[in-house]
Amino acid sequence: MPERRVLLQVRDLKTYFPITRGLLLRRAVGQVRAVDGVSFDLYRGETLGLVGESGSGKTTVGRSLIRLQEPTSGAILLDGEDDLTQLSGQALKQARQRLQMVFQDPYAALNPRMAVGAIVAEPLEVLGQLGRAERRQRVAELLDLVGLDPAFASRYPHEFSGGQRQRVGIARALAPEPDLIVCDEAIASLDVSIQAQVVNLLEGLQKRLGIAYLFIAHDLSMVRHISNRVAVMYLGHIMELADKAALHDDPQHPYTQALISAVPIPDPKVEKERRRIVLSGDIPSPANPPSGCVFHTRCARRSALCQAQVPELRALASGHYVACHHPGPPTSAG
User: Cα–Cα distance between 69 and 59 in angstroms, integer?
Assistant: First the structure.
């Protein structure tokens, strides 16, 4: 990273969803702890990968950062000053201009009744930026920037392929010139060859415009390719956070080790000889998470301490953080 200026500071972020009962007088009987005390920094111009099983809270983190989902508590500091959780009205609108999102499903994320040009121009119209002629010119520039013919501005989403629709979504996110784009499984629904094209596009835009990404995905190999650092989530908590090379070459958390062991290696001999770490049981419900370390019910290293005390996300080395009472390389019993 040429510079390490912090863009976003997330501190003890919690996002809970109420569990209600009753038809008319609905009352809260519990809560789903989708995100339960997440903290990290995101630097300008970097890509931070966010990985984990389905239900680990990755998407909720992304939606909470840009206030599409209201956080329950915590702080989200933009440039160390504005706490996004406390903003409202015009102040929130201005802050959102700097934080945009590309959604997972390019078919559902675009209004089928709007032409592509109107879709890309909508953020500019909402923010009251530029006149009509200037907006048309800006739309043409954005479509060209993401590899689409500006003449396509008059077409409708159903006339495009999935990859082209995702490019439209990226152009829309770029319209207000954001500092950060949250990519929520942005390539998951695309064909493999198209995934590579979209990832290359994102990397090219980052080099050209200096945008930061929060790249949420299941595919660890793709996350390793595009990210500078990677955070591993499990049941609403960050288990490990490190530079991508350190995380893949020297994972310290048993959950991270299990995830990496499941990634296929394109060498039949290496793939045949390496040992996979198979976790027992299923991921617990976020409505009733385990006490202590939330991973202890599936961990081969668990101890009485793990069941009683929540581990803090602490630094093991420069830039390498792990939330584990017994970090270390994989054990033979894993």
Answer: 10
pLDDT at 334: 39
pTM value surpassing 0.90: yes
Mean pLDDT of 271-300: 87
The CA dihedral of 130, 134, 136, 142, to the nearest 10 degrees, is: -80
Q: Which two tokens stand for residue 301?
A: 């290293």
Whole-number pLDDT of residue 189: 84
Three-class SS state of 235? coil
- At 318 the pLDDT is 87
DSSP string, 170-199: HHHHHTT--SEEEEESTTTTS-HHHHHHHH
Residue of 304, 184, 316 whose CA lies nearest to 240? 316
DSSP assignment of 237-304 equals EEEEEEEHHHHHHS--SHHHHHHHHTS--S-HHHHHHSPP-PPPS-PPPTTSPPSSSTTGGG-TT--H
Burial class from Cβ neighbours inside 10 Å (0-12, 13-18, 19+) for residue 299 reads buried
